[in-house]
Amino acid sequence: MKALTIGLTALLLAAPAAAMASDKVIHLSFENGVAAAQKAGQIDGSVKFYLAGNGPHGKVVNDNVTINRKTNAFGKSDEETCNHVLATDLIYLQSEAKQAGANAVTEIVSNYNDTEYRDGQNYECHKGFLMSGVALKAKLVKLP
To answer: Which site among 7, 17, 37, 117 is 20 to 30 Å from 83 CA-CA?
Structure first.
């Protein structure tokens, strides 16, 4: 019984350290993440998404939309958990765009802990032992 108590105590004390030790930054294809969310029916395709530097120009409806969602990462692959949390961000951005009368989300940059990551192909995901997060900053735009 004493060995079991000691083992459980050690496990509980080590868990926070394990969560911190496995925190890593991952860069994944934004296009693949959007396609997966659309294929799964999470977004409907009525709003287009463009990373910074890739999008067309239109009338800016809102120039400062931010989203920072997290999801359970335990036991999931990097791509699975990161694309899942990206999809939740996209659902929110699609909803915000529709409410604002916009049909595109442009100038999307990763913005984890207010540190921008700009890439024309990839988004940034932070994966820990228990949680993954994707933070985005963007503009809502009405395209002709």
So the answer is: 17
